[in-house]
Design a protein that fits this description.
single chain; binds adenosine-5'-diphosphate; Rossmann fold; about 45% helix; elongated
Length: about 325
Amino acid sequence: MVNYSEIMSAKSIHKIGILTSGGDSPGMNAAIRAVVRTAIYHKMEVFGILHGYSGMVNDDIIKMDTKSVANIIQRGGTILKTARCKEFMTPEGRSKAYKNLQKRGIEGLVIIGGDGSFRGAQVFSNEYNIPCIGLPGTIDKDIAGTDFTIGFDTAVNTAVEAIDKIRDTADAHDRLFIIEVMGRDAGYIALHSGIATGAENILIPERKTNIDEIIEALKEKEKRKKLVNIIIVAEGEEFGGANEVSNYIKDKLPKTEVRVCILGHIQRGGSPSCMDRVIASRMGYHAVDCLLEGKFNVFVGIVNNKMHSIPLNEAVKKKQRINDEWIKMVKILAS
Ligand code: ADP
């Protein structure tokens, strides 16, 4: 039987480049592995572009084979390294990048990154008419059009594990703990980890922080002798983060024992969860299909467990929305 996609690959795209860009997220390696091996299966040549768009601008590009992605599916970070690249934001930088691709005959790109990286892909693709397929790699889960992003599940489970440990000590001392998790613009890590650990309050950038309501609730809980409280704060929450929230509470409730813990970069690292490895593998595999089918300027998303290719524009223009019902639920469950 004729394998249609092999014919397409032989005729259309022979050489592709792959890069990871922006913030790293666990599972990026699993996605790289899937893209490289699927592309090689379809008889393509694959080039790894190092340090995100910087590698394209500065010609830091290596040839990859099946062996170069051996033993990486379980590793966090990214073997291709990642970076933020100001030069790529200029037409001159992108022109240098394009020449470096042209030199090798690279005809298509797979970009694993967040919405910023997708924006770069879109601009580049429009300028140089080169197919760019995005894979949503971000711990923040803030990309519209997909139920999952690579890295969120691992990051949120790291946060949950840490918060559980903090709750033990909070419980032993009858303390209020204010725990800051990552999320400058998006509250998904805060929301999910907060629900999963039974937090009393969850403060996220997408909602106004009603600090006085929190103070009143703490006073009321003190009367009921409910002294162990966990407040999860996303770093981009409007009040300014865990330290600011803590200072305000200490000022209003001087007798309350308050401690702050900022989880920080541990949320980005570590071995990817099973879920992240599986979605990264499926997305990487599908990205090559997209190139074979001649798709342009799309990213790969999963909706209702099905693979979709969604215009990059969707991710660049829209944000995932927080469900108000979840916010209501948090209050009821933590009462
Ligand atoms: P993330 O992909 O994690 O959201 P960034 O927002 O930092 O990360 O974007 C990663 C990189 O994508 C930037 O350093 C830049 O090189 C490129 N990029 C972002 N926006 C644009 C743009 N409008 N034009 C060209 N390149 C862009």
